[in-house]
Amino acid sequence: MSEAPLQPDRQILMGHIHEFGKRVKLSGTAEELESFRYLERQISSYGYRTQLLSHDAYISLPGKAAVEIDGNVVRCITHSMSVSTPGEGISAQVIYVAEGTEADFEGINVKGRIILVDGIATEDVAALASARGAIGQLHVSPNEHLYEMCVSPVWGSPSQYTRTQLPKTAICTISRDDGERLRQACRAGRAPVARLTTEVDTGWRKTPILVAELFPDNRPDAPFILFSGHHDTWHYGVMDNGGANATMLEAARLLAERRDTWQRGLRICFWSGHSHGRYSGSAWYADEYWDELEQRCVAHVNVDSTGGAGADILTNSAVIDELKAVAARAVETVTGQVHRGRRHGRAADQSFWGVGIPSMFGSLSHQPPGPVKMLTALGWWWHTPHDTEEHIDPANLQRDTEIVLRVLGELLDARVLPLDYTAYAASLKHELDGLAADLAGRMDMNVLTSVVDELRQRAEAINRVAQQETDPVRAEIINDRLRRASRLLVPLNYTFGDRFHHDNALPHPAWPSLSGLRELAALPEGHADIPFFAVHARQTRNRILSVLRQACTVLALGGI
Fold it and tell me: Where are the transmembrane segments (predicted)?
């Protein structure tokens, strides 16, 4: 970036925050579209070319809900993608399943029953409960607040093949105190009976996406950085995701002032369908513009929930291995904190791993650890009616925006893209070393570890050349090779292997492409199924080997 760093204007940021606090922005509603029009007016005024798209999305808006326990009414909400009950509701015995993990379900017959689960409603519990024949779910909040959630295990809008994975249970959340009384009754063997009544408006509706882009002069077809965040909200959603939308607008304004330093373009996307369609907007965009994204998009920066009051932890935001250094430089420069980063979870509109686009962030600043176990570290008001302007800290919003500005500035200005595939190789080598020990005597892993070493050496050579490169033609050759390598390597790191169909929205293991090897390694010695698992494991090894060899070829220095 320039020697004079860009400084976000706190007053402008808070002006956006005030605007976002005026409307509840449920996906596909008139109020949401009105707010999208505000985004469009603002970003157009900065010189960006804008397009407001409209597409079909499978959206689920929770409505009324009622819960009675042995005839006593308790406070509750239902959830996006929950099943609507008949008018009279459903009634069944309640059975306690702790946190609703696979192990918690073992040995318990939940068919035809309503399960009681500790914690905020999630898609993985919904999938397990549906598969085991439960008819309802009661989730116990970690406190007195009831947290809105989308519980679909399908990433994006469902197809004819994935629609069967949608939840088959009615789902409600109740407060901690009500849940504790019900939990005690279950533990005492009193077999409490619950009646759940839920109304959920689920179906196809038109939703918007705002696309804004700006490119270096005379290069409208240049490669670009994708900068994105969702605009739909639960309730007023002033932090989630008004804070990030304010960050996006202010970053767009300031970056446009230095367009003459850019080596590539900037495309900004505001999504709908994040909260009520399981990332339906970004998933549709990835599918609809797949070819253009593959050919031209070189990195994705997503932002979510910036500027929260008390959000003083800047060390733990998610970033792909090859971009960790970019995140660390920005965070340490602005805050002095050492960014260690973490692996991306299956969230945050990360719909572009199949395309092969390196990505970073989602939520950026987090709350310090507290005594109550929460699903996120984004404040007790997250996903509740209390997510209002009072929970935005202007100084934190300015700080978070400055970090994002520095990241985008480096990605836009660097002559050679700062994609460090030595970090990727080190991460993969760590995974393979552990597997090699577990697979000793069952499968030779030496060929894989050898080609990972070769990948690291090729990446080191690319890095050395990149640091000294001043010729724009050679720099462009290196950038194209890094782009082509990412199309091979990112899916290996973050997908099960199909680049063209989104993996489900359930929690994923690290390096899911290695699952075939892990499954063989997990079998105990002498297990009768080892020969069967070895067949799949060999095929998994060969796929990984092929991808890595292609990446080594792409990253070779010949011709540069």
Answer: none
**pLDDT for 352-366, tens place per residue?**
999 999 999 999 999
Q: Where are the domains of the chain?
A: 10-59+204-308+343-367+382-413, 60-202, 421-555
Contact (Cβ atoms closer than 8 angstroms) between residue 346 and residue 512: no
Domain 421-555 class in CATH: mainly alpha
Max distance between CA atoms of the chain, in angstroms, equals 77
Listed residue (423, 515, 431, 411) closest to 460, CA to CA: 423
> Given this model, what pLDDT does residue 3 score?
61
* CB contact set of 243 (below 8 Å; sequence gap of 6+): 17, 305, 306, 307, 308, 392, 397, 400
Total length of the chain: 560
The 10 Å CB-count burial string (b at 16+, else e) for 161-172 is: ebeebbbebbbb
Tell me, yes or no, if the pTM score tops 0.85. Answer: yes
* Residue position matching structure tokens 């994105």: 228
Structure token pair of residue 550: 């292609």
Please give the full DSSP string across 391-441, using - where no structure is assigned.
GB-HHHHHHHHHHHHHHHHHHHH-SS----HHHHHHHHHHHHHHHHHHTTT
pLDDT in tens, 145-201: 999 999 999 999 999 999 999 999 999 999 999 999 999 999 999 989 999 999 999
The CATH code of the domain at 60-202 is 3.50.30.30
- 309 by Cβ neighbours in 10 Å (0-12 / 13-18 / 19+) ranks as middle
